[in-house]
Amino acid sequence: MIKTFVKKSHIHNFGIFAGQDIPVGTRIIEYTGELIDKKEEARREKQNEKIGITYIFDVNDRYSIDAAIGGNNSKYINHSCDPNCDAERFKNRVFLYSNKFIPKGNELTVDYAFDSKEPLEVCHCGSPKCRGFINEI
């Protein structure tokens, strides 16, 4: 099992960080939480808008995982336009894999790639490759 820890992030609120060097292609952690259907996701997202944070991760066209209920450290993964992790979906599960070498202490990130048809969300990742928005443009 790959060691991770949570601390304040320069990207947003809290983040998940590498507790050890992580080689390319390593399965780091499963994104865990309650499996919910899209109707329930829409209901919860309305509630989450009020508090300004969500831990919902799309699995497929039918389901999402809400890490606010039963989630682990993976719920703190922040967005980056130049991420060091990719999300791999398998059935109704999501796993995070390193897509480059991640030195111990570095923040783990994934590209949220919000739908370009949704309202634009400003990005704060700080990457030189930042596209300015979390949405796919």
UniProtKB/TrEMBL annotation:
Primary location group: cytoplasm
GO molecular function, one term: methyltransferase activity
Positions of the SET domain: 1-113
Pfam families: SET (PF00856)
S-adenosyl-L-methionine among keywords: yes
GO CC terms of this entry: chromosome
Listed Gene3D superfamilies: SET domain (2.170.270.10)
Keywords: Chromosome, Methyltransferase, S-adenosyl-L-methionine, Transferase
Positions of the Post-SET domain: 119-135
SMART domains: SET (SM00317)
Protein name per Swiss-Prot or TrEMBL: SET domain-containing protein-lysine N-methyltransferase
Native source species: Candidatus Amesbacteria bacterium RIFCSPLOWO2_01_FULL_48_25
